[in-house]
Input
Amino acid sequence: MKEDALLNVANDIKDQALKDRVIALIKEPRLSMIDTSESKSTSFRESPASKRRHHSYENGLITHTLSTVRIALSLSDVMEQVYGVNVDRDVVIAASLLHDIFKHVTYSMIYPGKYSSSKLGERLDHLTLITAELYSRKFPLDVIHAVAAHHGDGSPIEPRTIEALLVHMADMADAEINDKALFAAKDIIRECIMKDIQTLPRELSPFDVILAKKNGGCEEVRRRFASRL
Output
């Protein structure tokens, strides 16, 4: 399970107090200051990472989180090995794992593959929620900053540490890669199967569709996916 993969990465955090706080949030991603019981929101496990764009399918949030932290750590390698900059990997790991942790409470599923804002999501965005929660749980300032700044120019504050910049770049890179792949997969399905779809089934990666078209053309796309859409 990808949740276990998130916990495995969290276990690489060297600071024990920070590690414990991160793991506690991943295991139980619950807001401590706001009652979400009537919000009719999605669960962390099933949530998309966006309503209509990147990772806009069931389980997309966990997939995006795992990819973001791995990209951020790869960028940390570049910073250290190429630019000679020391990176606080504890901050990078913690902020990457938690940057979207409360997106699920801002979404509500209309039907499989179609999402809208939850009651809470109509009032507060995920960035506000996680920043407030990290502050209330006494997370280190550098972790809170990296989370608060992960939207870059669109954040309340721009990245002002190397770690915050790496988390922002990793988040943006993964979102863009998946967004383009999802668009391409939908276009291929429209061309080859004559179907317009809102999203893909949870078990079907957009990269599977792209590679099927590359390797076997529309015939391969129809053979593999027509009955699953």
